[in-house]
Amino acid sequence: MIQSDFMARPSYGAATQSRSRILFTVLLDYANEELDVEECSIEALRSQIQTHWQSDRRLIVRTKVRFLETLTKLIDSPLTADQIKESLRRFEDFLDILEDNRPNRSGSEVWHFTLNFWHSRLDRDANLRAFDQAWEIKRSPQSKPETVNPWVQICRDSLEAQHYQRLTTNPLTITDGFSFDVHELYVPLEIVERQEEEEERVYSIAQFLDHLEAKQRIAIVGEPGAGKTTLLQQIATWLINQNALPIWISLADLQGETLEQYLLNTWLKQATRKISVASELQESFAEQFRTGKVWLLLDAIDEMAIEASVALTSIARQLRGWISDAHIVLTCRSNVWDNGKNSLESFTTYQNLSFREQTGEFIDRWFQKNPELGDRLRQELNKPERKRIRDAVRNPLRLALMCRSWSLTQGALPNTKSTLYQQFAETIYAWKQDYFPTTPAQRQQLNYALGQVALRALSQSKTRFRLPDSFVQQAFGSAIDLMPLALQLGWLNQVATLGGEKIYAFYHSSFQEYFAAQAIDDWRFFFEDFAIFQSQWREVIFLWLGRTDLAIAQKESFIQALIEFDDRCGGFYSHRAFFLAASGLSEFPQSQKLDEIVIQLIQYRFGNETLAPIREAARIAVLQTDRQSAIAELEKFVSSTPDLFVRWTAAYTLGKTLDQANSYAVKAMIETLNEIENTTLKLNICDQLEKINPGNQIAAETLNSILDSTDSETSQRKAAYILGKNNLNLGKAISTLERLIESTQNSTLKLQAAENLIVLDEMNAIALSVLTALPTRTQPTSTKPPKTLNVERTIATLEQRLTEATDPINQRRLAYRLATLSPGHQSAIDVLLSLLLQPLPSLHKRIVENLKDVLLEEQLPLVVDRLKEAADSIEIYKLLWYCSERMNYRSFAQAWNQRPPNR
C-alpha cells in the first residue's frame, strides 16, 4: 500500500474527490493521447511520464510526482505534489483501482503503478461517471448480510479433483507407495521480484502471499524444475483459505481452445459435473469474474501447443473482455518469457531463488525415515570436488531426482544435468525391476522409442507436450509392445481424455527433453530446421552437450558451427548462435573453445561499443555459461580494465551475481570508489559494495566521511539512508535524517527523509509528524465538457488528419493513435516506418517503442524489408533485433534477402 500505515484519518469529502477526479481524468486523457494542449508541451513529458495499456482497461504508469504536477498545470487544473500523492492513495485504499508495483515504496522517487478502469479506455464519459458513482458508494456503504458463495466450493472441489497438491516426482515413485504431498516435502524458497531499473526485492513465501492480493497480473518464471508449479500450488492453497475462487489450468490442456472456450465448456463441465452447460450457468460463472474474486492459475505457457514465440502474445490477446477482470498468476520458463518483446511485460514478474542452505533441509525432509542416509549424501555433496553438481542440484527438481537416485543406489554423484537424468533413468529401471522386470536390451529399446516419441512431439507444435494415444502409438512404431511398459514405469502418464482418446504426457517436460537429446546422434540435426533458434530445443541442446556417451569431437564440431554461423542477414542470428554456444558450455566445460568464448562473451557484456540488445543477450549468457570459467575470466577483467565504470559494472556482476563477496570484485569496487570524485557515484558504489560484502568497513568509512563533509542535503539524506538500511551506523543515520527533516526548507526532501526514516525506525515520531500532516487544499475542478468517443468516426477523422499532417511530431502522434485504435493499420505503420527513415533522431526512440506496441506478427517481414538498409541506426537496429526474436530464422532471412536461406 502506498504509505498509508502512518497517515492521519484520510478525507473522502468533496474536495478530495474533486482533486482525485482531476488526476484520474488527466492520466486517462494523457495515455489516450487526447489532451487538448500544445503537442510540444506533451512531447517534453513523454520520456518522463511513461504509460502502457496492458489491456483495454488496465494502464501501467511509471513517472515521478513532479512530472504529474507539470501535467496538471498544462490543463489549467494544477495539483501540488502532496495532493497528487493523496489522490494516488485514495485510488488505492478507497476506490481500489490502483496497484502499487514498486518493490520499495519508501524512499523511492519513481512511482510505478497500474490503474484499473471500469470501462474501455475509449469510453471516457462512462469511466468518469463510474468514478463518481464508486466514490459515492464507498462513502456510504450499505451493510449486507454475508452469504456463502457456492462457487467457492465448486472451485475447491475442482482443485481437489485435479490433485493439485501432488508433487511432480510422484508419478515415478507411486507404484511402490513412495510419494509425498507438497506439505511433506515443500521447503520454502525466497522469491525475487524481477526489476529492470530498480533494486530487486526478495520476499519470503509468507511475505509474497501477503503481498499477493495487491497484484492482478503476476508471472512466475524460472528454469525447468525451479519450483514454478510448486509455488503455484502454494498460491492455490492460500487462495482456498481466503475463500477466493482459484481456477487451475494447465495450458497444455487447451489443445487449440481459447481460454474463454476452455473455461465456459471444458472446465465448467468438469467442475459442475454436467454434460452440458446452460447459458444461465455460464452467465453466473462470468459474473464471478466481475466481482474480482476469480484467480486464474495458468501453469506452463511454454507447454502450449503453439510456437513459443507467439504463446505470450496469444495469452495476452485472450486476457480480454470478462476474463480480464480475474486475477492472473501464470508460470513460464525463463527462456520463453525473456525471448524478445514480451506481450505480457506489464505483469509483475517473480522468480524463485535457487536452494542455498535449504538444500540440507530438503535432504533432511526426503530422508526423514532414514536420516543416516541423508547425512551421507550431505557429506558427499559438501566435498570440494562436488561443487559443479552442488550448483546443479540447487534446482528443486534435480535435487529430488538426486535424492531418489541416492536412496536407491548410494552410488557416485553425477557432474552435469544430463548425467543426473541419465543416472536417475538407470535407477528407475533397477528400482522397479521387482515390479516390472526388464532386460538391458528392453531398456535400450524403450529409451530409443521414448526418444522418438519425444523428438516427434517437440517437432510438432500441436502435440508438443500433450500426446494423443494415436500419436504415441505411431511414434512407437514397431516397438509398440513396449508402450505398456512405458506407462507402467511412469515415463508416460495419462493426463486427460479428449474426444474419447487418451492423452499422455511425459512425467515431466525435462525428461521429454532428456529422451529427445538421447535420440540425436549427429549435431547437424540442430541445423536441419534451425532448431538452434527455437526455444523448445534449447534444453534439448544443453542435455545433448552433457551426454557422456558422445564423442568429444561431435560436441566440439557443434560448438564450432555455432560460433562460426553466418546468418547472411545482418548478424542478428549469428549473435544468437554464439550466445547459445556460450550458454551450452555449462554442460560442456571441457570444450577447447571455452576460454575463447567466455572472453568474447565478457567483451560483449561490458564493452562500451556493444549495442544494447547484444549487451542484454550477453548479460543472460554470462549467467548461464560455465560458472567457474566466467568467474575466472571476470576476475582477470576487473583487475585489468582501465575504464572505471566498466570495472564497476563488471565487479558488481562478479561479486553479487556469480560469486558473492568475491575478493577480486570487492577490491575492484574499492579501487573504483577511491578513484571517483563524484559524491553521487560514490554513494551508489557504497550501496552496491554493501550488497556484495555486507559490513564492508571502507564503505562505512566513506559514507560517514560524506555525511561529515558534504553541504548537500540530498547527499546527506542518501548517505544516511544507506548507512542505516545496511546497519552500518544506525544511530547516526536516524539522527541525520531527523535533523534534515527539522532543518530543510525543501518540502520534497523533507518527505523523502521522512519516508527513509520510517524504514529505519517505523515508530519515529518526527517522521510520523511529517507523514500525517499532508495538506488537503481544495482546487477548482475543470469546466471542460466530458468527451465521448465513437471509434469508427475517430478512426476516419485520424485517417484524414494523418493525410493532411506535415509536422513529424504530429504525424507520429496521429499514426500511433490510429494504429492503437485499429491494430495493424497499414497506413499508420507506413507513416511510422517512413518517419524512422528520416533524420529525426529525437523521435526515433519513441517511434520504435510505438511500433513494438502496434505491429502485428504478419507485418514484421515488411519491417525487416523496409529497414534493413538502415540497420546502422541504433534505434532501427533495436527494432530489427526485436523482429529477429519474434520471427523464425527462415522468414527473417527471406525478408532480408528476398529469398530463403540455404544451409
Can you characterise this structure?
The structure is a single chain. Helices cover about 55% and strands about 10% of the residues. The protein folds into five domains: about 15-140, no CATH class; about 150-350, Rossmann fold; about 355-410; about 550-770, Leucine-rich Repeat Variant (Alpha Horseshoe); about 790-895. Helix 26 runs parallel beside helix 28 (about 610-625). The chain is built from 44 helices and 14 strands. The protein starts with 13 loop residues before the first helix and ends in a 6-residue tail after the last helix. The longest helix has 20 residues, at about 440-460. The strands form three sheets. The protein has a seven-stranded mixed sheet with strand order 6-5-11-7-10-9-8. A four-stranded antiparallel sheet has the order 1-2-4-3. The radius of gyration is 29 Å and the shape is globular. Residues about 1-10, about 140-145 and about 775-790 have low confidence and may be disordered. Helix 12 (about 310-320) links the parallel strand 9 (about 295-300) and strand 10 (about 325-335). The protein is of the alpha/beta class.
